[in-house]
Amino acid sequence: MKLTLLLDLDDTLLGNNMDTFLPAYFHALSRQLGQFAASDEMLPALLAGTRAMVANTSPARTLEAAFDAAFYPGLGLDKAALQEVITRFYEEEFPKLRSVTQPIPAAVDLIRHAADCGYDIVIATNPLFPLRAVEHRLEWAGVPKETYPYRLVGNYRQFHFSKPGPAYYAEILGQLGWPNQPAVMIGNDLNDDILPASTLGLPVYWVTGDPDASLPESAHPRSSAGTLAKAVPWMDRLAGNRPLPLSDRPEASLAILRSTPAAIDSLMRSRSESDWTARPKPGEWSATEIICHLRDADCDVNLPRLQRVLQEENPLLSGINTDAWAEERQYARQDGRQALAEFIRVRVSMIRMLEALPAEDWSRPARHTIFGPTTLQELVGFIATHDRTHLQQLTAALP
């Protein structure tokens, strides 16, 4: 049985009330950095950095970069000069915050069971912290990273989007290469976990002790609610089924469109030159060729096509064999990093255009020479599906 299991951390696997934890965390960090800035300056800077992460929509900027740009200049400090102090904070002071958290026994049982079943486990915590801070909280919960084979652990260096945006959940699946198996989300927070994952079309399990709690109407029909212990039989029922189709709503498609270049940025950022250019098999595309293809599909097909649908009445759209461009345009000889930057630029332009549309424009009609009558919403959904296909191809091509 196979399953991609997305799990919230705080107040799902670990009792951790953020109204108590965050003030204690900010106070401890301010005290550690007190020699560099006054406490009355530190807290506003920390809050500004946090707000910058939550507000980030750029697939070219990680949450860490968004935080750094707001935090350090606001205090007139240099990050490199503080790195040793910050590292020491997360090793020596952060662990003391364990006292404001409480383990949840059912969490250990759930993680152990999921690992025994071979499920792909993702810690889908809000990725506003460094990885070391998340690792400590997993240890406090009794499910340390060293013991369990987590596929991904949300942290601010590896992700570009945060909760409650559905793009965060799409970015997780994108970094995993959109696994060809069911994916589900388990979390305790309606606004941060349940609603955004439901927007994407994932079955969700709402961890709640309220027997009268009712799932939102947008929730997948296979969703459920209850105690964390009862999530185990629920996820087992979904494991091994065929992958469930994602939502075709505009919000879901936009989340995927935004997440694709972000996922590629994370997957490729630290890769060697050979990882960019190597073909997994003769005749198959390298990472550079895949990224060039995505860039040109957006620039020369997708964006112009969507603009025509918005500007013309029921336009006739021609099918185009974009696969042939790999050889015709010599993708293998191009710079993959530059291609990614260009892909991000055109994709952001497309997203901005789509986000500004009134709801009725998503129903604008068009005709396609291959698949017939269509709408703007369906065309955008095709782009999202195309993204998912090539992220599967990309992750399969990487060593």
What does this structure look like?
With 399 residues, the protein is an alpha/beta fold. It has 15 helices and eleven strands. The model has no long low-confidence stretch (mean pLDDT 95).
What attributes does this structure have?
alpha/beta, 6-stranded parallel sheet, 15 helices, 399 residues, globular, 3-stranded mixed sheet
Describe the secondary-structure layout.
Blueprint: E1 4-7, E2 14-15, H1 18-32, H2 39-55, H3 63-75, H4 79-93, E3 102-103, H5 105-116, E4 120-123, H6 131-140, E5 152-153, H7 166-175, E6 183-187, H8 190-200, E7 204-207, E8 224-226, H9 231-238, H10 250-268, H11 273-277, H12 287-311, E9 316-317, H13 325-328, H14 336-355, E10 365-368, E11 372-375, H15 376-397
Helix pairs in contact: 1-2, 2-3, 7-8, 7-10, 10-14, 10-15, 12-14, 12-15
